[in-house]
Model the fold of this input.
Amino acid sequence: MYESFFGLRKNPFIMSPDPGFLFLTESHREALAGLTYALTARKGFVVLTGDAGTGKTTLLSTILASMPSQRVRFSFVLNPTLTPAEFLELTLLDFGISDVPASKAKRLMRLQQFLVDTHACGKIAVLIVDEAHKLSPEVLEEVRLLTNFETPAGKMLQIVLAGQSELSEVLNRPDLRQLKQRIAVRLNIDPLSDTEVDCYMRHRWTKAEAATQLPFGAEAIRRIARWSHGIPRVVNSICDNALLLAFSSGTTQIGADHVLEVVADLDLADRPSGNGKGSGPKPALPPVSSPVSSPNELRIPAPLPRPPEATPFRTLERYAPATKPSLLARWAGKLGLVQ
Done:
């Protein structure tokens, strides 16, 4: 909605995993190189971990886009909350096998034939499982058994398990020790450091083909790094809402006050910190009654009183008695949707 206002060709902080916006930190670069090596060298079993929102899916999408279909056949399982039978069926379907047999034995034979044919053509078959930390022990055992498809030259099926940090704990379970022993490569993505948050924002602004400079001031960027804890997805959310807030106010510069208002709207003040290179635990937003600790510390306006009939949800009605309209109301007014 605000792209033309800021001289953008596309949304720089879109939440979907777009490989065109991939920002390679040191850990992202190592993970991308490790994935490429493991798949092309037919290592068999790869595990990719990282906190929620650190860019695992974007990295996987980049792998899919960068490896030619003439050489690699992918099956991408995005929803792992399946039974073992459903998991095997979805794997076959995403490999392009439409005639999935009813029995498990025939399904395994069909997969084996597919892998043999793929290997004979010099291609690589890759199964990628996102959100793998949600896999049940029964499905994980099925995944382990799929690694038995091999030749003396290497594995016929390359498997990538990508998940949040809890995946490491899952794989450390005693009953999954055989699965853990088969992991050939383990990779991890860290949250952004404060300096990397600045570079990340400028990178995405440039990739959006902006005709103007990044409108976020230095203090605004510092606060974004502070409240996002270096999680790219949260950085995107804060930046997107801050741009919308500035657009609704008719200003092309975004300061710390815009960021703090967005942080309050998104309820990020008490968000627990990640486990990476971020700055660690962050204090809650300062209460209105507390004194300003420094010239750079801005106060958050007191929440507006809620009318007795209001619902507990954060809706526009909540802001009805306010003298200052909400972000959504200002945005709607900007578009002429309300009087």
In short: Residues 26-189 form a domain with the Rossmann fold fold (CATH 3.40.50.300).
